[in-house]
Specification:
Elements (H helix, E strand, L loop, with lengths): L2 E7 L2 E4 L2 E3 L2 E5 L2 E6 L5 E7 L4 E4 L1 E7 L11 H10 L2 E6 L10 H14 L3 E6 L6 H9 L4 E5 L8 H4 L7 H12 L4 E5 L3 H10 L8 H7 L2 H18 L2 E4 L5 H9 L6 E5 L1 H5 L2 H7 L12 H13 L4 E2 L3 E2 L3 H5 L18 H10 L5 H15 L16 E11 L20 E11 L2 E4 L27
Parallel strand pairs: 1-6, 2-7, 8-9, 8-16, 9-10, 10-11, 11-12, 12-13, 13-14, 14-15
Antiparallel strand pairs: 1-4, 2-3, 4-5, 7-17, 17-18, 18-19
Length: 466
């Protein structure tokens, strides 16, 4: 019998062809074989009785911002938390200080993550000055894709957003065309700068301590108009476009209307799928997120869009600020910093949706992992079959995950009020990254284990391994 590094025995295994009753053999960080029950020998045997083995989650929308803001969390704290959440690869957004907008900044950020990450990581870049040479150099540094905002840089944060914010439509088209030449995806935070400015003017005299003021400051039309313009521009630009964190029924209508006109995809997040503005009102500014968490009608439209294949990714948009930063603006929803930690909510929320019959287990894995691997050209990830990377999670669909501060691993657990008390059917019991267990009910991984993960075909010189 072949000897393997480890074997997961007696679990139900979700493969591309469906659930199978086979054992998963792992060697050298890869799935070496799917074996009949009890076959093979290994140094480590993992008992998966009563559990399911799924591909690890690939979170394509994550913010850490380290090392500039350790009071918001570090690469170590937030990748530890991600491992507890079943995430085996995260895509870090380029809002760093300074902005990740050049090949040199990418290399510095890559090296910092490589030293500290518990799980695999990829980096987005801001397209910067939009010159062909600069944009191409960033691709050569192994990035996973590009990111832009259609809104201005927040006041006082120009260095974090230089080459990332393009509120002018002509510049947005230039950015789409520049990125299209690389063949990599471009992810866009889409809200109309002009309509946002008008909405803020219309708020004069309003009570900004109310959660409803945030909805008024960023109405759904700001999102839907920006998305419509981008999709219209992309008919000409033909970029590989991805719309971030869709929140509204209005935007779903736009996505449906433009179906087939260019290569585009869209994502949403657990907070939009499981929470409404009423929950935000109870949690206060700790639950402020841009774009806002909206109404039950919007939530229902998002679930229908998932069912219909209009939305094909669910991501965390994990974006932690410190408790002090949130508290300083506790009576001002407009000025409070936007973001909430979500790394330990993503997978349980989707497993809960499976338990409630909203989606199938197969659909959950597509939304969390398989579609990301396909969209971002990670050929060895997002599936369980021989030769794929051994990035896996072992889950108990009959157990419950309760979100309480004492059990969260994120450094920002004291600003996770949006989820306090939430109970989800389904629990992660083990996370395996590159063939090694990094979480088994407690964190057992080590900083530096995560690998820099680039699209398939990128030069080996630009890929780092543990």
């Amino acid at each position: 019998m072949a000897n393997y590094d480890s074997i997961i025995r007696n679990a139900a295994v979700l493969t591309p062809s469906g659930l199978v009753e086979l054992d998963v053999a792992i060697s050298s960080g890869q799935i070496a074989a799917l074996l009949p029950r009890g076959e093979g020998a290994a140094a480590s045997i993992i008992d998966g009785s009563g559990k399911h083995v799924l591909p690890g989650a690939i979170d394509i929308h994550f913010h850490i911002r380290a090392p500039a803001y350790p009071d918001r969390g570090t690469v170590e704290t937030e990748t530890r938390a991600a491992s507890a959440g079943g995430i085996t690869t995260l895509f870090e957004m380029p809002i760093s200080k300074p902005c990740c907008n050049s090949a040199e900044q990418i290399e510095m950020r890559r090296d910092h993550f490589a030293e500290h990450a518990f799980i695999n990581f990829s980096l987005y870049a801001a397209p910067g000055d939009l010159t062909d040479a600069s944009v191409a150099a960033m691709k050569a540094a192994g990035i996973i894709g590009y990111k832009i905002f259609t809104t201005p840089a927040p006041e006082g944060r120009d260095d974090e957003f230089f080459g990332l914010s393009f509120p002018d439509e002509a510049d947005q088209l230039r950015a789409l065309k520049a990125v299209a030449k690389t063949g990599l995806p471009v992810v866009i935070h889409a809200e109309s700068a002009q309509l946002l400015a008008q909405a803020e003017r219309d708020l004069a005299g309003a009570d900004l301590s109310l959660a409803s003021s945030h909805l008024a400051a960023r109405p759904a039309i700001c999102e839907s108009v920006a998305v419509a313009k981008l999709l219209a521009m992309n008919i000409q630009a033909q970029a590989k476009l991805h719309i971030a964190h869709v929140t509204s029924a209005e935007t779903i209508k736009i996505l449906r209307a433009f179906a087939g006109t260019s290569d585009f995809t869209a994502e949403t997040c657990p907070h939009y799928l499981t929470r409404t503005n009423d929950d935000v009102a109870r949690a206060g500014v700790f639950a402020k997120i841009n774009p806002p968490v909206r109404t039950q009608a919007d939530q229902d439209a998002l679930w229908q869009a998932i069912t219909d294949g209009v939305i094909t990714h669910v991501t965390t948009d994990h974006a932690a600020f410190s408790h002090a930063e949130k508290l300083a603006k506790k009576d001002n929803f407009v000025d409070a910093p936007p973001g909430s930690p979500g790394s330990e909510v993503l997978v349980p929320a989707m497993l809960d949706a499976v338990s409630r019959g909203k989606i199938s287990l197969e659909k959950a894995v597509e939304l969390l992992s398989a579609n990301a691997a396909k969209r971002f050209s990670l050929a060895s990830k997002g599936r369980i079959e021989e030769g794929a990377d051994a990035d896996l999670m072992l889950v108990d669909l009959s157990a419950v995950t309760e979100i309480v501060p004492d059990t969260l691993h994120t450094f920002a657990k004291d600003v996770a009020q949006l989820y306090y008390g939430a109970r989800y059917n389904g629990r992660i019991v083990r996370t395996i990254v590159n063939g090694q267990t990094v979480y088994d009910g407690s964190i057992v991984g080590a900083p530096g284990w995560g690998r820099y993960t680039s699209p398939t075909g990128t030069s080996a010189l630009n890929r780092m391994s543990a």
